[in-house]
Amino acid sequence: MASKINHYLEEMEHYDKDNRYMGASDLCNLITSEAGILDAERERKCIDAFIRQLDDNSTEVQGKAVQCLAKIASKIREDNLGNILSVVANCIITKDKDFRDIYCICCKSIMAEVTDPYAPTVISSCYPILQNGIKSDDEEVQEECSELLSELLKRFASQIIHDSSLIKEKVILGYLFKILSSKSPYTLKKKVAYAIGCLSVVLSSSNIQALMENLVGSINDNMKDDSLLFYYILALSWVSRKIGYKLGGYLESLIMNLIKICDSLDSENSNDQQNEIAEEALNCFVSLIKHCPREITCYIDKLLKVAQEKMTYDPIYDYDIEDDADMDDEGEAWDDEDEMDDDEIQDDDTSWKVRRGSLNLIISVTTTRPEMLRALYSDVSTKLVTRFKERENKIKSLVFDTFSILLKTTNVESFSKDTLEDLEPSIGQMVKRRSSVEELYSQVPTIVQSLIKETNTKNVAVKISIIECLSQITNALREKLVPFFEDLLPIIKESVIDENNTAIIVPALTSLKSLLQYAKDEGSVKANAGVVLDIILASLKNDHFSVKAEGLLATSCFTKILTGSSDDSVGKLNEVAITCMDASENAIIAVSHLLSSCHSSLTSSEIKNDIDILTEKLSNDMKRVTALKAMHRVCESDCDLSSYSSSFVEAVSPLLSKADNNVKIYSLQVLSGYIGKYGSAIGKAKIADVLTSTLSIITNENLQVADYALKLLCILTSFELIPSALKDTVVKVTSLTESTFLTGKTKRNIIGFFDHLSKNNSSLDFESFITFLEEAVTIKRTVPASCIAIMIHNYSELNTTFTTKYLKGLKSSDTRTVVVSLLILGEIGKLNDLSSVKNIIESVDSLFASPEIDIKQAASQCLGSICIGNFGYFLPKVIKIIVECEEKNKYLRLMSIREIIQTKQQCVGDHSKEISEILYENAAHSEEKIRNVISECLGKLFNLAGLEMMSDLEDKIKSSNHVVRATVAKSFKYCVHKGMDTTALNSFIPDIIELATDSEHVIRQYTLESLVSITHHLPMLLKNDIDTIYKILSNEIEVHKELIKEVDLGPFKHKIDEGRPIRKAGFVLLDTIFEKIPERINVPIINDMILVGLADPDDDCCSQTLHILLKMIKWAPGAVVGQMSNILDKLPKILKEPAKGTTKTSMRIATKVLEKMNEIPEMETNTTFQKFITDNAVCFEETKDE
Length: 1186
Hints:
Blueprint lengths: L1 H10 L5 H17 L6 H14 L5 H14 L5 H17 L5 H14 L5 H16 L4 H17 L1 H6 L6 H12 L5 H15 L4 H17 L4 H18 L7 H13 L8 H20 L8 H11 L8 H10 L13 H7 L2 H18 L4 H14 L6 H17 L7 H6 L21 H11 L5 H18 L7 H13 L4 H17 L4 H5 L1 H12 L4 H18 L6 H11 L6 H13 L5 H14 L6 H13 L8 H8 L8 H18 L5 H13 L6 H14 L6 H13 L8 H17 L5 H11 L6 H12 L4 H11 L5 H17 L8 H7 L6 H17 L1 H14 L5 H14 L1 H4 L3 H10 L6 H30 L4 H10 L11 H13 L5 H17 L8 H11 L7 E5 L4 E5 L2 H17 L6 H12 L4 H17 L1 H6 L1 H13 L8 H14 L8 H9 L1 H9 L1
Antiparallel strand pairs: 1-2
Helix pairs in contact: 1-2, 2-4, 3-4, 3-5, 4-6, 5-6, 5-7, 6-8, 7-8, 8-11, 10-11, 11-13, 12-13, 13-15, 14-15, 15-19, 16-19, 19-21, 20-21, 21-24, 24-26, 25-26, 25-28, 26-29, 28-29, 28-30, 29-30, 29-31, 30-31, 31-33, 32-33, 33-35, 34-35, 35-37, 36-37, 36-38, 37-39, 38-40, 39-41, 40-41, ...
């Protein structure tokens, strides 16, 4: 080993540069591959050899030496690493300036490679030398040292923050400001300004205050000295980007000064220095908007006014002359020489920098303050449209990009459910519903005319921005653009047919797709169908996958225009779409639309060929689901498929055995659609095979598939089946009732199956089926009872017989017999009037005296259900029973009222007074479970008869008894549903919100839960009270120590957090507001609440907060970027320390949050964020494994 090292050292001194290069490379590989093999002396010799090569005459050898030193930095002894940095840093100051660059690069490379534990050594070795270099008189040395200092501060900021003694903050800050106020060169001052920005990250609060006072004072003192003012503004710009979130206290003086600077621009002449100063001032605004969202709210309107004024700042150019020229030469395209060269403009005039800064300011407001979209549309959008005529290509492109971002931020929900499934690749997952875009409707003609006028440009970047903007306009304005279809079509045609750039073609096709989708009046589209056909055919013949895919989606939208077409357009599209099958799944969707909408224009052979191809795609694992969706669409259309039973049934039925849930569901839909229409032509054998396959996939564990299977079973049992097959079907369907996950939808489907079976198979042995179902009835499985009742109801001959049987069962000594009889009798009572049965109510009521709890519960259900068959007759009897009953049986009897209100809603309103009286009497009951029933009944009753209950409810909601207030507060949770009459509820909104500030924490909790329900179902009722709700939430989501109770359990003490349910309800309400009232989102306030929630000790509250943060990332990514530092400060605890005794839900969602944050373009180059991702990579892997 020693001989190898000596050999490599000799090679590094060889006269041939190739030998020196290879010697360095080999020695580096040896050290890095076998770290720790060198003793201290030999390691020092190797390091000296590398350092000597930094002065080598060959640049290749110098570069290799830099690489080697960086690679071995983390492999060598710490003292030797310090020696390397000391020597190299000293060389920057003392050695020949010709080698200064290579020394600087070497230091940067080592800093980038070393790990965090080496930070103290790196800083102590470099910082004193860099400080000396910055205070030296050599400007070139100052420049290199300032640049290195910035790298050092960026790389080791977190270590310096934890140990402030590593650098002398005040000293270095003084040296940097001295350079900034001197007459040093432009490049030096620029690097010093950046260094101040990097330094601000590690400064203490007192030093930040000194820094800001110095900057603000220097700006005030040099308002008339542009040469100095620029650098102070530049430094302020970097400081605001780095620590903008800490500058809230300095905003007033900062913003007023910066606005004054922008307003001081010469309106007659363009001054380069002033333009640069103004741009940096505007950049400061951008940073402050992102990082100080709450504090800057009151200045947003002023900043937007500045942005609107300065985005038209172009003192040396008269756009009115251009407008006059355009009127004279309307329709003439620009020649190449007419377009001014960017570089030429930049040399002659720099006013474009001001316009660029203004547009960036508008973008920052758009992306961080979505609640201001309406104002942006009404004010800013008009100015942006007038700026479409911008003369400088870079800025023109930015104008269109700004308008696109404004539209993209408001993506209107406009697609039907079916279209969403088809167009899923081109539509974001989160569809935002905002009415703000309506502000643009009046501007549509101006927008279209201005956009068309600018499409003559020859500049590719501008053309891309224009077409992308067009795609966003068509998506946002929808049918409002259809009248301009003929005007926009030539632009789309030119972009698709005459262009080769996919960045132009794809958005052009997206625009066409949107126009076709929204073309309700098809006249203008049909008149230009030939042009549209040429465009689509050209896109389908394009070699690029993305173009084909978008063209196929446009084809799907075009099919409704072609319905009934007599020419060969449909055949051409069909032929080309088939050739694209292997390239894109969208081809399958397109063919299905052609078959379902335009089958009359296709020949029988073409239809057969399409069906065969769709069937063939079922064997492709990747395209199977799409093919099934396509076949389902065709089945639902009026296309005659009666001759394709083998293609559909034989190909689809085997897919029911596949493991993929989606494959099963869509297969069931296809079979239901086809057999429902053409079942008689299929044959008994195939029907039996399909029945067998369907029964095999019905399980309690997969109720989603079972729901679709039940619909198919209803169709299959309409055909003649052998008795054993029917029995197997009944057994399998009945087995579903055992599931603990049975939902209302599945229950209805099961009952619907037996309803269908009994109506369409009158010859069946129903008595045996009923006997079988009776065995399945229990107090926890009431669905079989409902099935028995529906069969008895449909088969009237059995009605009296079985009713008598179950009445006798009430007197049985067997508990199970009594329970079954009660449950079935109750279900019969829902469908039939049992008032003719003597003393039935009294018979059921007597069973409440039974010692068996199951009998009592069954009696409660039966009592309420019987009442439904003849409401007017039975209700007074039930109410009398409740009034006169003992306290111990009151809960179960009140449950019968709940059953009545839930089931017989249309009749309850007429008896609201009698029902409400008994509910109010028990509103202050000592048992919580009774109060819960009262709340639910009151809420549902209010939904049905709110106007009649208003007077009494007003008294109860303001009752002095806090228990009554709590019961009423909770009742509003159950009173809302979509489509209800909101007159009564609307009058109670102020009272409900007032309850959210009640002194009793339980009332606040119930009120927040009720507000969640109201927001979810009827968001418009709370739209004007959102600001008040925000104030309430800001207080309720905090952890209140007075609500944390400590219980002494002897050996240990247990803490109970009574505020947890309130906080959880608060975060759920915030999430619901985000979802349902997006136009009232207040980004700064919600950002603050997110930071509070991330620090919550409860896993549920933290998880809910992370869900809100995920929505914020999609909704206002700029605001998340501005709060990144604060968010990252909270996440490590969530990633590494889940709350004790809880799941790791928050850890998993936090990982998802970071993934989504990483997708924000600005995060890709953010070193702080990327370092956080790297440092927590292990947590991500652990979360994924779990």
